[in-house]
Each structure stands twice: as structure tokens, then as C-alpha cells.
Specification:
Structural class: mainly alpha
Oligomer: single chain
Helix content: over 70%
């Protein structure tokens, strides 16, 4: 039980630290930025922000994959808790973060295309 409490504490600390590091980074894309985007530079800036966000999502996925492995190792011989369910939870989050990273990269690509298209005839 003591091992599980230690692992849970470490996992919570890792999530808290990663969240604060994410919050300390550049601001994510806002609706106002999207509405105001009129130039190639505006769209390129949005694309860059989406690229950064996708990288952060990839990092979160890797963290959760690592936590899932830790829970799977802790499942051996653990009584009175459910590390298998916790591992499944972490694996699900990792999948969700990966999917979000892919979608975010798609948004970046779309804004790069907008950057090319917006000034093509000028």
C-alpha cells in the first residue's frame, strides 16, 4: 500500500508540474487571434502556436504512457486498490492526447495553407 501511495503522489506531482509548465508557455490560440488573422504572418503565427501545442500534447501523452506502465508494474501483489483501472485510465488519456496532437497539427497545416492562399493574388 505504501508503494502505491508513493507512486500516486509522484504521478500527481508530475501532472501538476507538467500543467504548470504548459501554462507558463506561450498563450494558446484564442478566438480573437483567429478572427483577426488577415495576413500570411498572422496565419503563420497561429500555425506555430498550434505546433507548440501539439508538442505539449505529445509530451502529456508520453507522461501518461509512463504512468500507465508504473501502475501496471504496481498491480502485481497490490491488495485493496485498483492499479489496473488506473493504468487503463492513463492509457486512455495518452490516446486522447495523441489524437488531440494530430488534430492540432492538422489545424497548423490548415493555417499554413491559409497563409499561402490569403496573399496569392497580391
Amino acid at each position: 500500500m505504501n508503494r502505491l501511495v508513493t507512486m500516486l503522489s509522484a504521478g500527481v506531482a508530475a501532472v501538476m508540474l507538467s500543467g504548470s509548465a504548459w501554462a507558463a508557455g506561450d498563450a494558446m490560440v484564442t478566438p480573437a487571434q483567429i478572427e483577426a488573422a488577415k495576413t500570411s504572418a498572422d496565419h503563420e503565427a497561429i500555425a506555430a502556436a498550434y505546433d507548440k501545442e501539439a508538442t505539449q500534447l505529445d509530451s502529456a501523452a508520453k507522461e501518461h504512457e509512463g504512468m500507465a506502465k508504473s501502475y501496471q508494474r504496481a498491480a502485481t501483489g497490490t491488495k485493496g486498490s485498483n492499479p489496473v483501472a488506473m493504468a487503463a485510465h492513463c492509457n486512455k488519456l495518452a490516446e486522447d492526447y495523441k489524437a488531440a496532437a494530430t488534430e492540432t497539427r492538422d489545424l497548423a497545416a490548415a493555417h499554413r495553407q491559409m497563409a499561402k492562399d490569403c496573399c496569392a493574388g497580391k
